[in-house]
Design goal:
Elements: H1 2-23, H2 25-29, H3 34-168
Length: 169
C-alpha cells in the first residue's frame, strides 16, 4: 500500500515540475540561477495574485457602494412614505377632531334652541293659563253679578206682586 502512495506522490510532483519547466524555461536553462528564477517566479505569482486581489476588492467595493446607494434610496423612499402616512394620519385625526367639534357645537346649539323653545312654550302656556284663569274669574264674577241682578229682579217682582195682591184685597 505504501509503495503505491509514494509512487503516486512522486509522479504528481514530477508532473508539477514538468509544468513549471514549461511555464518557466529559465529554470531549465540556467540551473545555477535556480534561486533567482524561483524568486522571479514567486514575484510573478505574487504580482499576479496581488493584481487579481485588487481587482476583486475593487469589484466588491463597487458592488458594496451600489448596494449602499440602493439601500439609501429605499430608506429615503420608505421615510418619505412614512412621512406621508404620518401626515395623512394627522390630517385624518385633525379632520375627525374638527367634525367632532362641529357636531358638539351643533348639538349644543340644538340643545340651546330646544331649551329656548321649551322656555318659550312654558311661558306661553303660563300666559295662556293666566289668561284662562282671568277669563274664568271674570266669567264667574259676571255670572255672580248676573245671578245677583236676577235675584234682585226676582225679589223686586215678588215684592211688587205682594203689593199688588195686598192692594187688590
Amino acid at each position: 500500500g505504501t509503495t503505491l502512495v509514494s509512487s503516486t506522490l512522486s509522479h504528481s510532483s514530477q508532473t508539477m515540475m514538468e509544468k513549471e519547466k514549461l511555464e518557466f524555461p529559465a529554470l531549465e536553462a540556467k540551473p545555477k540561477n535556480k534561486a533567482e528564477a524561483e524568486a522571479k517566479k514567486s514575484a510573478h505569482f505574487k504580482k499576479k495574485e496581488h493584481a487579481e486581489a485588487k481587482k476583486r476588492a475593487e469589484a466588491a467595493a463597487k458592488k458594496a457602494l451600489k448596494c449602499q446607494k440602493r439601500m439609501e434610496a429605499a430608506k429615503a423612499r420608505s421615510e418619505a412614505e412614512a412621512q406621508k402616512k404620518a401626515e395623512a394620519e394627522a390630517r385624518k385625526v385633525e379632520e375627525a377632531k374638527e367634525r367632532a367639534e362641529a357636531q358638539k357645537a351643533h348639538d349644543e346649539a340644538g340643545a340651546q334652541k330646544r331649551a329656548e323653545a321649551e322656555a318659550e312654550a312654558k311661558q306661553k302656556a303660563e300666559a295662556k293659563s293666566k289668561m284662562l284663569s282671568q277669563a274664568r274669574r271674570r266669567e264667574k264674577a259676571r255670572a255672580e253679578a248676573e245671578a245677583k241682578k236676577s235675584a234682585k229682579a226676582t225679589e223686586t217682582k215678588r215684592r211688587e206682586a205682594k203689593k199688588k195682591a195686598a192692594s187688590s184685597k
